[in-house]
Amino acid sequence: MPLTEQVLRVLDDALHLQGRALHFDRSTVLLGNLPELDSMAVLALITGLENHFGVTFCDDDLHSAVFATVGQLSDLVEQTLARQNE
């Protein structure tokens, strides 16, 4: 399964979107566009991504810009996976 699709599944689960996220693409705006994406949901999303992909995000990498779009969130996961596989 492609990485972005996996991110969308975790996003859908963490925010309880009932399948809505599965229709998003890399350009879909998240921050400011999804009322479900509040501070508590961000924590659930980070935890969900870490558990799903078996990664740990660096605190320095977690800033509002990475939650701006699906693509930016997917890029964060991809970069973190690459760093951990070095």
Give the CA-CA distance, first to last residue.
22 Å
Please report the total strand number as a whole number: 0
The overall average pLDDT, rounded, is: 96
Q: Would you tell me the structural class of the helices and strands?
A: mainly alpha
SSE pattern: HHH
Radius of gyration: 12 Å
Q: What assembly state would you assign to the polypeptide chains in this entry?
A: single chain
How many DSSP helices?
Answer: 3
The level of helicity is 40-55%
Described by the principal axes of the CA atoms, the overall outline is globular
Main β-sheet, in a few words?
none
Low-confidence stretches: none
Determine the strand fraction and express it as a percent band: under 5%
Describe the structure.
- 20% of the residues are buried.
- This protein has helices at residues 3-14, 39-53, 70-84.
- Helix 1 packs across helix 3.
- It has 86 residues and is mostly helical.
- It has three helices and no strands.
- The chain is 49% helix and 0% strand.
